[in-house]
Amino acid sequence: MKEKNWVILDADNTKVEFLKSELKLPDFMCRILVQRHIDSLEKAHYFFSKNPSHLFDPFLMKDMDRATQKIKNALDNKLKILIIGDYDVDGTTSVSILYMFLSKLSPLVSYYIPNRFKEGYGISEQSIEYAIEHQIQLIITVDCGIKSVQFITKAASAGIETIISDHHLPGDTLPPAVAILNPKQSDCLYPDKNLCGCGIVFKLICALSNLFDFPKEKYTCFFDYVALATCADIVPMIGENRLLTNLGIEKMNTHPSFGIQALMQSSNLNKLVKVKDVVFVLAPRINAAGRMNDAKDAVSLFTATDFNTALEYAQQLNKNNTERKVLDKETYTEALSMIFKDSSNRIKKTTVVYNDTWNKGVIGIVASRLVEEHYKPTIVFTKSGEILTGSARSVDGFNIYEAIADCHDYLLSYGGHFAAAGMTLPEANYEKFSSHFEQYVRKHIKPEHETPTLKINALLDFKDINFDMYNMLQRLEPYGPENLEPIFMTEHVYDTGYSRIVKDHHIQFTLKQNQTKISGIGFNLAFKFPIVKSGSPFKIVYKIMPEIYQDKNYLKLFVLDINY
Description:
Strand 15 (500-502) and strand 16 form a beta hairpin. The protein has helices at 13-23, 27-35, 41-47, 64-76, 89-103, 125-133, 149-157, 197-211, 217-220, 223-232, 239-254, 258-266, 275-292, 296-303, 307-341, 363-374, 400-405, 430-444, 467-473, 529-532; strands at 5-8, 81-85, 109-112, 138-142, 161-165, 179-181, 351-354, 378-384, 387-393, 413-416, 420-426, 453-456, 458-459, 488-495, 500-502, 506-513, 516-522, 538-549, 552-563. By secondary structure, the chain is an alpha/beta fold. The chain has 3 domains: 5-11 and 453-563, CATH 2.40.50.460; 54-226, Alpha-Beta Complex (inorganic pyrophosphatase (n-terminal core)), CATH 3.90.1640.30; 342-449, Diaminopimelate Epimerase, Chain A, domain 1, CATH 3.10.310. The protein has 20 helices and 19 strands. Helix 5 packs across helix 14.
């Protein structure tokens, strides 16, 4: 494991004092808010809002008028509508909520999700051929389509109009769609550019509800789906995403939709749901449908009209996820072995591995785990038909999408985000691509990107850690990118003599500072155990977490690092 850099974040004291006086919040809370650019009353009130009326007007989005009128015209004239979406959580929730909304207005609405193994990500040749064969007259893409110039041109030439709803970065050339809903377009004035795909579809449903003068229940019923997608797609948890997630998590915990309720039950999630439960418990099960079987199972779960039917699909997704875990572990072990055997990997700035037998559905997960292990921009390839498919993951602060775009001469297709991307290429180009990717990263990566950084929000003493403080912290939830769970540091810490290594890799702590003792856990920190047992004072960096033991509530530390 790599050593980590510790950085104590600064905050403008004048702004901190202003928030303390106006909001009557403790210093550490105001310091965290200012670090997150919540430095005015207006921003603070929006940050803490759970009021649906604070959602932005959907008609502020470019082409929303045109899209809603085109859909209304299709419904009025009984045209066939096909929804095409991606196979991950964002894509399947997007398909589901739009299908549930429109199918109540017309029996001529259907959906299509490309098969990960046969068609790959996004709009495919097969999806357009399906639309032509079934005499579709209007395609609505969700969570995909912004770069599908070739396929949407083919649809247009066959007389099929397309509305694109997508949140990925547009390319230099836009597809010939009749309307494009994507806040990332340079001329789109929508205030929030960070919505996930399902968030944009939700805004489309809000706009249609407005156009048809429907009651708000026609769209508020989808809050839990939008929160699920927002958390799973790892988009910034600020602005409208934060508000939508707050509203959706509340719905999950009070009156979830049948599909989400069934997924929670089959996952033994019988407590109040938080973002981390969505990310680490619910989302992997939904993604497992597309990774191991067919993503349509996820849509069937979400669109189920009774609980028992939903539960059957949820149990199938659970089974898929169990199989996925086994495959994930096997692939990860094989990839680690390949990296270790090739001595050149020790001096490379990147990790690129390929095995033609690996399952396409798990290579993204394996890439993420390899980044955790070696902390380098990483791509894992497998063979898909006659071409190679790769899944890329980056380190904090390095734009892997730009690195892959610079290698476009060797690629058949590519797409993605700052931190994650996917690509296809001919097998003959693999070595040239790997070399070019390594050269680009070597030239552009900065030293601070090559070491994991712990960004510390505040210094605390153990005596200040209590449930009043923790309950105050919970007001910062939901956590996610740009609103991460706070990290604290405590100095002059000693071992009580009871800390020990557990399961060979982890440390179970019992620590003290002055007269205050507190317990904790540190995963994969066994190599730092000599510091704990040295008898000298040391520093720890940690998060605070609750624990129930023998029906009593405690606070413990989730220790991230230790140093003198």
